[in-house]
């Protein structure tokens, strides 16, 4: 017999026993009908906590079975069964109901308690999953404050938390829930008073039925209590948020209610649980933000200022990823060569974050060094490929390298990079370097090509963040780019360049972007 079958058999046995307890005043058995009850019908009977046996009163009996003499309702969670007798009966069924209730009352209370605790655990896990999935600190702390304030039934809640800026200075921010921010805007940040110190020092949870009567309250100048106009607080609950990785106190939750005695031990457990999840989430968010900032600054520090080139107009851009951790591998360079020529470089290191930014710095420096030796584009890329072979960790890099000498010609080589766009004066567009060779770190031969670059022409070099995203493949992105470039004004202004990026990414690029735009304006252009 399966567990489900066993449960049905026990329920049937209980119903049979209770049905047999319906007897006439002289002790004779009377007929009993069994009627399944839906949750809606049970709600109409005011079925209480959904467990045990209900003895309908006269009104409930009339609603359940008009004309019936007596009934019992056996409850089983959201459903139930009514035992209904139409003949006159004695008290046998009532005695049986009392006996069953007495025998199962303790069990029902235990089950009810377990269900309540399970609901608390489910609620905590739900909040925890939501919090630990976030990496944006502002959203995270507001979500945590809202969730904790609701969970403990506070009139309002606040979360004071500490951050360290890029200069190493610590500062405190806060979020509020239940009241507008203006409610606290004219009050100073809380200090380590006797009331607040245990929370900010991580000594433990503080719960008071009436904080105004607490021995720790009201000892500090200038207010000696709550400042005038402060929201009324009687019930008080405060929980520290402590980093699980290093034990640092990241901040604290503070909850208040104008009525005394509103917070219980269960509220304390809920607040501490949410504080624990918040600490994990804050740790993750801070580590993510730290690496993201480091990679961003490392990338920016390695990117050059494009030098002025007679006869050419240059616009360069580097945009870190607007969302996600994808930052660090893209770069551009504009190199004035000793021969009077100019080299234009765009590249992308596979991967993201600090490792990609580090490799990017090495590759950019190597390309610049080989370029200044006067090597041809194919030779520059071949030497860099050999350099990458010596790195401890294998990696590969896409790169487009072009040289413009005085005149109207480009000499270029590509290492697996997306094709450059060459827009002629008549508006037609050529793709340069498409599928010419493998990336650096994979291939070692990079054929050179030559293209006309006359006065009035434009050259656009870019990385894949401009044309590829989670919602658009690179082929479709290239089609959009070609169409967008065809409609650009000539010569391109910095504002129009920014508009191009915005149009292609919607301002939500999930990868970093580097680009170089060159307009051949003629000898008179500087």
From TrEMBL:
SUPFAM superfamilies: GAF domain-like, PP2C-like. The keyword Hydrolase applies. The keyword Amino-acid biosynthesis does not apply. Keywords: Hydrolase. Residues 136-292 form the GAF domain. Pfam families: GAF_2, SpoIIE. One of its GO terms (molecular function) is phosphatase activity. Residues 309-520 form the PPM-type phosphatase domain. It comes from the Bacteria. Gene3D superfamilies: 3.30.450.40, PPM-type phosphatase domain (3.60.40.10). InterPro entries: Bact_Sigma-Reg, GAF, GAF-like_dom_sf, PPM-type-like_dom_sf, PPM-type_phosphatase-like_dom. PANTHER family: STAGE II SPORULATION PROTEIN E, STAGE II SPORULATION PROTEIN E-RELATED. This is Serine phosphatase RsbU (Regulator of sigma subunit).
């Amino acid at each position: 017999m399966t567990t489900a079958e066993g449960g049905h058999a026990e329920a049937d046995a209980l119903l049979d026993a209770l049905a047999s307890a319906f007897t006439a005043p002289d002790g004779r058995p009377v007929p009993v009908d069994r009627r399944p009850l839906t949750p809606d019908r049970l709600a109409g009977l005011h079925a209480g906590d959904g467990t045990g046996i209900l003895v309908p009163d006269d009104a409930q009996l009339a609603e359940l079975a008009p004309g019936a003499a007596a009934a019992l309702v056996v409850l089983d969670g959201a459903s139930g069964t009514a035992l209904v007798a139409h003949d006159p009966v004695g008290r046998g069924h009532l005695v049986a109901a009392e006996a069953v209730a007495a025998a199962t009352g303790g069990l029902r209370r235990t089950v009810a308690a377990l269900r309540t605790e399970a609901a608390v655990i489910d609620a905590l896990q739900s909040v925890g999953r939501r919090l630990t999935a976030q990496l944006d600190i502002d959203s995270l702390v507001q979500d945590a404050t809202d969730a904790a304030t609701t969970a403990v039934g506070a009139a309002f809640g606040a979360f004071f938390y500490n951050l360290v800026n890029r200069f190493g200075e610590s500062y405190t921010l806060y979020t509020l829930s239940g009241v507008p921010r203006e409610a606290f805007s004219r009050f100073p940040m809380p200090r380590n008073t006797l009331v607040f110190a245990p929370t900010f020092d991580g000594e433990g949870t503080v719960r008071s039925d009436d904080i105004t009567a607490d021995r720790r309250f009201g000892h500090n100048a200038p207010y000696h209590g709550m400042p005038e106009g402060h929201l009324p607080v009687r019930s008080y609950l405060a929980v520290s948020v402590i980093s699980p990785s290093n034990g640092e106190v990241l901040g604290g939750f503070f909850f208040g209610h104008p009525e005394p005695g509103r917070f219980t031990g269960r509220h304390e457990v809920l607040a501490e649980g949410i504080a624990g999840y918040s600490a994990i989430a804050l740790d993750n968010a801070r580590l993510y933000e730290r690496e993201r900032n480091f990679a961003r600054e490392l990338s920016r520090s390695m990117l050059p200022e494009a030098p002025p080139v007679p006869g050419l107009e240059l616009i360069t851009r580097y945009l870190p990823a607007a969302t996600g951790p994808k930052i660090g591998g893209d770069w551009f360079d504009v190199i004035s060569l000793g021969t009077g020529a100019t080299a234009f470089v765009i590249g992308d290191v596979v991967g993201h974050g600090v490792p990609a930014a580090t490799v990017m710095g090495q590759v950019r420096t190597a390309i610049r060094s080989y370029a200044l030796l006067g090597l041809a584009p194919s030779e520059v890329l071949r030497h860099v490929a050999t350099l990458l072979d010596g790195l401890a960790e294998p990696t590969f890099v896409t790169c487009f390298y072009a040289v413009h000498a005085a005149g109207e010609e480009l000499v270029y080589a590509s290492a697996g990079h997306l094709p450059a766009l060459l827009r002629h004066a008549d508006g037609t567009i050529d793709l340069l370097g498409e599928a010419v060779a493998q990336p650096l770190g994979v291939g070692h031969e990079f054929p050179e090509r030559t293209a006309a670059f006359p006065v009035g022409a434009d050259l656009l070099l870019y990385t894949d963040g401009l044309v590829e995203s989670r919602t658009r493949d690179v082929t479709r992105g290239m089609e959009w780019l070609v169409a967008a470039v065809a409609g650009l004004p000539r010569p391109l202004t910095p504002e129009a360049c920014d508009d191009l990026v915005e149009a292609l990414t919607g301002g939500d690029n999930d990868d970093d972007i580097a680009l170089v735009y060159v307009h051949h304006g003629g000898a008179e252009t500087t």
